[in-house]
Design goal:
Layout (H helix, E strand, L loop, with lengths): L1 H26 L2 E9 L3 E8 L5 E6 L4 E7 L1 E6 L7 E9 L2 E8 L3 E12 L2 E10 L12 E6 L9 E2 L2 E2 H18 L3 E4 L9 H10 L4 E8 L9 E6 L6 H11 L18 H28 L4 E9 L11 E8 L3 H7 L2 H22 L1
Parallel strand pairs: 1-5, 10-13, 10-14, 14-17, 15-16
Antiparallel strand pairs: 1-2, 2-9, 3-4, 4-7, 6-7, 8-9, 11-12, 15-17
Amino acid sequence: MFNIIKTVKLIILNISILLFISTFSYLHAKKLDIYTYESKNTVRLLLNSSDFLLSNVFILDSPSRLVIDFKNINNFSKNNPSLKYIKQIRASKKNNTSRLVFDLKVPIIQLSKNYIIKQNGTHVLVINLKINTQNFNNTVNSKIIVIDAGHGGPDPGAIRNNIKEKDLTLMAAKILKNKLEKKSFTVFLTRKTDYYIRLKNRVKYARSKSPDLFISIHADSTKNKNTSGTSIYSLSEKASDKLSQALADRENKSDLIAGLDLGELDKAVSDILIDLSRRETKNSSIAFAELFVDKLKANKVNLLRRPHRQAGFAVLKAPDIPSVLIEMGFISNNSDLKKLTSRKFQEKLMGVIALVIEDYFESQN
């Protein structure tokens, strides 16, 4: 009899615990905000909740699907009205498990990343998918490059002996465009003639083309007449040295010539997304810059001391495009000035840069 009473008490206790757990789970069930970001070969998902996310993530084929199972999630909010590679997002719930299914229009190559970060009290599950978009538009999947000829119009850039930086950069941009198109790249110029473009509009134009690479070309000057050589800059909010800071300050102020100040870049889906994109594009930009230095050394192009530097150039601040700024040389230096005004030198330099670009994309595959 005692054992029966004990057993009944244990059953009642277990039922009470289960009811408590069920009630607790229901009361603490959270809403999940879904953000998506699509690039040429990546789909990134940011799934935000105020509570820690317990999830199981996997992919399925035929057709391509991403499946995510969650605990304690009751409501979903999709923050993207239209998507290019995602056909639809489906949700279902069974017991205490909610399932999200992302039906994709393209094959998933792999689930490349899956991790959780915490920012401002929000837990964010970040998922990166590598996708195959080669046949998506039934077109040749050639790489897109935007070339920015620095300065233009009422902004001549550096000047010496009536030689203007804006003319040298435009000549170089056109030469590089021609060489890249012969290698089957798709190339756009921010400017084709001598006119003025605000710095932020150069970036906006580049982003409108969804490029794989953005290159800004310059030929500056400095008070030290002995400073010479080609160099390359990748983005950093803190300049790597005084020369880098001085050049960045001068370039960033060029918008003031037209009486206009720089505005803020439009934010993407969220600050977290921008931060992640910036980290990745910064790494890609650095990789390009290092390849650039090695290739130019091998082709005996005179380089500035410490040829890869970092500075906060406004034109390098697109969060989702690998971007570099190339200083072909310094017109304040006699030797560099002679080279920069030489069509033969420009052809050689742009030819080597075209090889750098080709090698860069091969290394990305």
